[in-house]
Amino acid sequence: MSVATKKLELINWISSIGDKNLIDQIDNFRKTHKSFDFKKEIKSAISSEELKQKTTEFIKSLEWKK
Predict the structure, then answer these.
(1) What's the pTM value of the predicted model, to 2 decimals?
(2) What angle do CA 20, 32, 51 make, to 5 degrees?
(3) Which of 15, 54, 60, 65 has the most Cβ atoms closer than 10 angstroms to its Cβ?
């Protein structure tokens, strides 16, 4: 099924909903799942070196049982 077909089915389904609570839930989902802005997110991302350091520290903190 193509993306366009799926979108059309969702639009038709949402248009047929009469339950206000369900519409509110769908709207809340839409608001919390906005488009992902990669350029904005990368500004606050950790570096690969920091990731490596934190991962190494975490692995070393685990209790390894033999």
Answers:
(1) 0.44
(2) 160
(3) 54
pLDDT in tens, the chain (66 residues): 899 999 999 999 999 999 999 999 999 988 888 777 888 888 889 999 999 999 999 999 998 876
Q: For the chain, first and last CA: distance in Å?
A: 50
CA distance 34 to 27: 11
How far apart CA 4 and CA 65 sit, in angstroms, is: 53
Nearest 5°: phi and psi at 29?
Answer: -60, -45
